[in-house]
Design a protein that fits this description.
By secondary structure, the chain is α/β, with parallel strands linked by helices. The protein folds into three domains: 144 residues, HUPs (Rossmann fold), CATH 3.40.50.620; 138 residues, Alpha-Beta Complex (Argininosuccinate synthetase, chain A, domain 2); 35 residues, no CATH class. The chain is built from 13 helices and 14 strands. The chain has a five-stranded parallel beta sheet, with helices on both faces. A five-stranded antiparallel beta sheet has the order 10-9-8-13-14. A four-stranded antiparallel beta sheet has the order 6-7-12-11, with no helix packed on it. The model has no long low-confidence stretch (mean pLDDT 95). It comes from Bosea robiniae. It holds the Pfam family Arginosuc_synth. It is found in: Cytoplasm. This is Argininosuccinate synthase.
Length: 410
């Protein structure tokens, strides 16, 4: 039932059919003023039509917010996550998950600025995004009212949505009248596709689903060699050219696309309890992930590196589940950021037919000592004879266990 106390609501608005229907539904159901917010996260779409559609649906010009968040997105969300080498269930680079807290934060900021008492989103009741949006909203504004139309309205079919749009004179593109073959979410880090033709995990993803990468089989026969420069865990340059965070990721996306890099067919465990199959394309992120691990391999101490690997699954799960603004994520981030103090240097990579291959890494802070690892004699810091005592001490408990087994005849 609509909350009659809601006077003004800020809607996360894409300008598409679904959020346009939500906009009109909020106006007719809650009888409230609607403020629209459209975020440019590098999804590759013109945002002017979103403004035009909002005006057409009766939104005042001063209530239409469109913001370019690409630099903030990469600098303050993507890069901190990549310092952790975060990958949910070992493979998913969290492209959708990491965008939601930024969008929700902006919704709350606009709500505060406009005096709105509610925010709204278009996430469905079966997905993870509803959780991510709302956990962030409640963390930043505990008394906010969140309106989730897909959990409230009685529009249960595509036909009902189309009928509602026609009733309220919402323009419907011809290709929107039927069921979409799959749904797409995109930003500067990735594009994800789910639903319909992708729901059977036994069936290969059709070629027409891919939008960010060419097929590895169609990639050039000649490899592409690049060098990524890092400072304190963040990528700052490609082939010696200093670039802003968003510009750097966009260039890596182009390189990854042209070499067929970054495709992932995944069956994942949603936070809400079900399994889902999705197809993810993260071309630049896949390159960046490999390069970051490579520069860490020579600049991080073993203990620090292994501790990071141990906490990574928990950190990744926090982001996937929507807990970006939780104290535990912030505590882990502080530890991760401390580990990046000397993660500075260059990584050389070969990009070839879907693969990212590290072929060189160097740093002024490298812990790699060629004198120590060489098979040739002459290393002063390492005496081969010391290994005997080291091995015996580490074998002590194993020998004790072995003696007990022998004594008991086991």
């Amino acid at each position: 039932m609509a909350d009659s106390s809601v006077k003004k609501v800020v809607l996360a608005y894409s300008g598409g059919l679904d959020t346009s229907i939500i906009l009109k539904w909020l106006q007719t159901t809650y009888r409230c003023e609607v403020v629209t917010f459209t975020a440019d996260l590098g999804q590759g779409e013109e945002l002017g039509p979103a403004r035009d559609k909002a005006l057409l649906l009766g939104i005042k010009p001063e209530n239409i917010y469109i913001e370019d968040l690409r630099e903030e997105f990469v600098r303050d969300y993507v890069f901190p996550m990549f310092r952790a080498n975060a990958a949910y269930e070992g493979v998913y680079l969290l492209g959708t998950s990491i965008a939601r807290p930024l969008i929700a934060k902006k919704l709350i900021e606009i709500a505060e600025a406009t005096g709105a008492d509610a925010v709204s989103h278009g996430a469905t009741g079966k997905g993870n995004d509803q959780v991510r949006f709302e956990l962030t909203a409640y963390a930043l504004k505990p008394d906010v009212v969140v309106i989730a139309p897909w959990r409230e309205w009685d529009l249960r079919s595509r036909e009902q949505l189309i009928a509602f749009a026609e009733q309220h004179q919402i323009p419907i593109a011809k290709n929107k009248r039927g069921e979409a073959p799959f749904s797409v979410d995109a930003n500067l880090l990735h594009a994800s596709s789910e639903g319909r033709v992708l729901e059977d995990p036994a069936v290969e993803v059709p070629d027409y689903v891919y939008s960010r990468t060419i097929s590895p089989e169609d990639a050039p026969d000649k490899p592409t060699i690049i060098t990524i420069g890092f400072e304190k865990g963040d990528a700052v340059s490609i082939d010696g050219e200093k670039l802003s965070p968003a510009t750097l990721l966009a260039k890596l996306n182009d390189l990854g696309r042209d070499n067929g890099i970054g495709r992932l067919d995944l069956v994942e465990n949603r936070f809400v309890g079900m399994k889902s199959r999705g197809m993810y394309e993260t071309p630049g992120g896949t390159i960046l992930h490999a390069a970051h691990r490579a520069i860490e391999s020579i600049t991080l101490d073993r203990g620090a590196a292994h501790l990071k690997d141990q906490i990574m699954p928990q950190y990744a799960e926090l982001i996937y589940n929507g807990f970006w603004f939780s104290p535990e994520r912030e505590m882990l981030q502080a530890l991760i950021d401390k580990s990046q103090e000397f993660v500075t240097g260059d990584v050389r990579l070969k990009l070839y037919k879907g693969g990212v291959h590290v072929i060189g890494r160097s740093s002024d802070y490298s812990l790699y000592d060629q004198d120590l690892v060489t098979f040739e004699e002459g290393a002063v810091a390492y005496d081969h004879r010391d290994a005997a005592g080291f091995i015996k001490l580490n074998a002590l408990r194993l020998r004790t266990l072995g003696q007990r087994k022998k004594k008991l005849g086991l």
